[in-house]
Amino acid sequence: MAKSLSNRILATPSAYAKEHFLYVQETGTLQSIEPHISQRKNLNSFLFFVVIAGEGILTYNNNSYLLKGGDCVWIDCRQQYSHESSASSPWKLMWVHFYGAAAAAFHDSYLAAGNHFIFSPSDISSFIECLTSLYDIQKENNSLTELMANKYLTDIITLCYTENNSNGKENISPSHSLAQVRAYLDEHFTEKINLEELANRFFISKFHLSREYKRIYGITIGNDITAKRVSRAKSLLRFSNQSIEQIAIASGFQDAAYFIKVFKHAENMTPLEYRKKW
Question: Which of 53, 60, 58, 100 is nearest to 77 (CA)?
């Protein structure tokens, strides 16, 4: 007797998709009938699945986790993992194995932001819709399938960020203090800003400020200030006749030489080249 009922589609991505997209390797649904262990390791793949109903155990990173209906999981299959349905409450899953040039970077960034690979969103319907769409387009398999698959996989990753509640931990909404810090930076980024003075202004430990700002906004304070300054410089380069020296000072850079170095690193061209192209 079969231990599970499953519908799955195995995909073979094109060379173009492998280089440029997030792409599906397998996707489908599973309804467990009796417990059986599915285990893998050293797969160049990432697995995302939703527990529609029932319960089971995931073993990952040498730890075991009880999963139940409504839970979502996003794991790196290059590491060993296994999962097994409960005998008393067999689970039903929707899942996708996927990969791509940016897949590992997305997952690393997601975890670095303080998110957990297991989470329980308030509503799993959006995830189910994306997974259903992924399955349907793989089944249809036309000229737009890989492009649309990239879109739905990106949607799933975005949902992981926005819906993740870190398994009951503090959510990713900015605190009032951090929101005040960012509003201050939006207004004063052209001025000289010292981290310690910034922390004192808002009565926050500079270590806590640095860590939480990066966790909430996905960028360090220093890099955020630099990005704001470069954006201001780009606007002045396009819509003013100011010299490079004037734009450097007006954007918050101490001198033109440093401005040119930072701008070239950010835009892969000098400020003058940017002005000519745009």
Answer: 60
Domain extents in the chain: 4-168, 176-277
Token pair of 200 as six digits: 């004192």
The pTM (predicted TM-score) of the whole model is 0.73
CB 186 within 8 A of CB 228: yes
Distance (Å, rounded) from C-alpha 131 to C-alpha 94? Answer: 7
Q: 4-168, what's its fold?
A: Jelly Rolls (2.60.120)
Tell me whether residue 19 is exposed, middle or buried, using C-beta atoms within 10 angstroms of its C-beta: 0 to 12, 13 to 18, 19 or more. Answer: exposed
| CB proximity list for 171: less than 8 A, separation 6 or greater | 165
229 is written with which tokens? 């300054």
φ, ψ for residue 114 (rounded to 5)?
Answer: 95, 10
Domain 176-277, classified CATH 3.40.50.11810, yes or no: no
Per-block average pLDDT, block size 10, for the chain (278 residues)? 74 96 97 82 95 96 94 96 93 97 94 90 94 96 96 97 60 72 96 94 92 87 96 97 97 96 96 96
